[in-house]
Amino acid sequence: MSSLLIKNCDWIITQNAGREVLTNASVLVRDGEIREIGKAESASADVEIDGRGKIALPGLINTHTHLSMTLFRGFADDMWLQEWLQKKIWPLEAKLTGEACYYGALLGSAEMILSGTTTFVDMYFHMEDVAQAVAEAGLRGFLSYGIIDLFDKAKARKEQEHARKFYDYVNNLHNPRIRFVLGPHAPYTCSPETLLWAKEFGEKNKVLVHTHIAETRREQADSQKQHGMRVVEYLDKIGALSENILAAHCVWLTKSEVGLLAKAGARVSHCPVSNMKLASGGEAPLPEMFDAGIPVGLGTDGAASNNSLDMFETMKVCALFHKALRWDPTVLDAQRVLDLATIDGARALGAREEIGSIEVGKRGDIILVNAKSPSMMPIHGKSTVVSHLVYSSPSGDVDTTIVDGKVLMQNRQVKSFDMERVLARTQEVATQLVSG
Ligand SMILES: [Zn+2]
Predict the structure, then answer these.
(1) Whether residue 378 has a cis bond before it, omega within 30° of 0
(2) Which of 91, 113, 276, 394 has most Cβ atoms within 10 angstroms of its Cβ?
């Protein structure tokens, strides 16, 4: 039984239904759960943190990444997606080991902890090793093994079996912070049989089906050529859409495809930085998705196509991207963007009852941002605090990161694992991969 009291925060951005902002208030977390918010003058706890000069907000939620791809950061930039995958990424991925993915995941965890992300959705390989890294780091991970069958029946059986084994592995961990997600990579790398199997498995076991949809214009053109219809129309026709789908990207969608996703109850992970860097072109139609009621969260995508896992940066880019493309500064305001990175991300993961806001009964996933940093000044009431968080505050202003009431970073020092050792070993492992 452990408890944590964050005392006298200058500001608490609750992100509750009323988007309430509290001043000079405290948060008490007991056994990983938020128990009290308010004055908490008489409360005491095993661990106390001085919240003066700090802004408390819910830990950020990254709804799409490939954590161990931190190993390939900066290795191949400025290329077209297909060429990038085929010439650079896939040959390296063929050489990946469990140890490499473990260190890549710890490196990514360090980066997320330092930039205020507490929950993330992953898709990659050697996921048992990734799960070990996430357990050590103390983050909340929704983990999927990336299924790629390339339309080969034998490979499809093997991949499905692999995913099923990882499902058992995660269940046997009995770690409430680590959750299994199914990960059929994309409609262009998975056969319809595998996509339908994923849909059934997701429905039967109540798990998310994490995939990539309509990332590029070429994907839509190929779909027209192969199936005579657009990607989401194809998924609808074969019966693969469901409310468990968490679709990364969705850049190239028509209004009617947005309608099909909404009708199915699917969720979307919007990754503006990756889309811009890979020149995916166009823009995920967020306003149309909002109008259709699709739950949308923000994601970074992997560090090989971003190249960071920084959700503060992603928030700012997201706001600017849509304003620039729509010629409309009102299209996404700061509050809406902060929602995408917190409570809406939780909704996209079906975890709205647990995370995404600072409310009694939710998990103690909280970050503290330095309110005395030059980029946070001056403050004129709550709307400027939200504005600064989205438009001016770098992630380096995050001072403390807490998950389930456990302090993973304080004063910018990662506490849950030995970062120096991880950085050194990750460099060795990455050098071996790239040069070996
Ligand atoms: Zn991705």
Answers:
(1) yes
(2) 113
Q: How far is the CA of 76 from the centre of ligand 1 (A)?
A: 16
* Cβ(182)–Cβ(207) below 8 Å: yes
Contact by Cβ (8 Å): 183, 174: no
Average pLDDT, the chain: 96
Residue 66 phi, psi dihedral angles, 5° rounding: -130, 90
Neighbours of 374 (CB within 10 A): 8
Distance from Cα 302 to the centre of ligand 1, integer Å:
6
Are 388 and 338 within 8 A, CB to CB? no
Give the CA distances from residue 182 to residues 166, 197, 206, in Å, rounded to whole numbers and listed in that order: 9, 10, 10
Q: Count CB atoms within 10 A of the CB of residue 434.
A: 13
Question: pLDDT tens digits for 398-410?
Answer: 999 999 999 999 9
64 alpha carbon – ligand 1 mean position (Å): 6
pLDDT recorded at residue 75: 87
CA 110–ligand 1 middle distance (angstroms): 20
65 CA from centroid of ligand 1 (Å): 6
For ligand 1, the distance from its centroid to the CA atom of residue 33, given in whole angstroms, is 31
Give residue 249 CA to ligand 1 midpoint distance, Å.
Answer: 8
Q: From residue 146, give the alpha-carbon distance in Å to each of 166, 169, 177, 346.
A: 11, 15, 20, 22
Residue with tokens 């929602």: 339
At residue 346's C-alpha, the angle toward residues 345 and 347, to 5°, is: 90
Reported as a single tens digit per residue, the pLDDT across 227-240 is 999 999 999 999 99
What is the full DSSP assignment across 378-399?
---SHHHHHHHHHHT--GGGEE
